[in-house]
Structure formats: structure tokens, C-alpha cells
Amino acid sequence: MCIDHHIARVLIDNVSSLNVMLKSTMEKLPVDQCYIMPSQMVVRAFDGSCREVLGDIEIPITIGPCVFNVVFQVMDIASSYTCLLGRPWIHSVGAVPSSLH
Asked: Which CATH code of 2.40.70.10, 3.40.930.10, 2.30.29.30, 3.20.20.70 fits the domain covering 10-93?
């Protein structure tokens, strides 16, 4: 849950070095876009193309009984997922990813 809105199709990815929120997802949330901090970051995608980060924004998310303030990099890209929680989030919560299943 993110700002009292349920967010479907969130990927937890221990390979990603970013927490990514799609611009289209962020626009559906009750967030004032003035809170987006400018970013000069450029991300190299799997296909080798470079994608610009529109900015960074800190948004509280609720997973089970816990609330986490997550800094997301906002990107205007096409994806099957609405958000991606990468290593920054995994490390901040002390999670241990497992691929046993």
C-alpha cells in the first residue's frame, strides 16, 4: 500500500541498484509533484539503451504491518510492473533474498 492506495505488480529485484516508480504510477497517487527532486542520473537498460531519471521522490509504503519511507527514482518507461524495489530497499529493511523456490 502506498499513500492509502493499493499498488499491484510490484517487483522485488535483488539485482536492481534502484527503487523505480513509473511516472504513470506516481501520477495516480495523491502526491504533489513539487516533491520530486531533480536528478541527473541516467540508467542503462538491459537492451543497452540509456534512460533518464525524471527525479527522486520519497514516498511511504506499507507492507504488512510495517511502513517504509522509500526513495524512488521516477522514470517514464514501459514496464509490466508499476514499481521496482531494488537493493536499496532490500538492504534498508534487512531482508535476505532467496531464490530457493
From this structure: 2.40.70.10
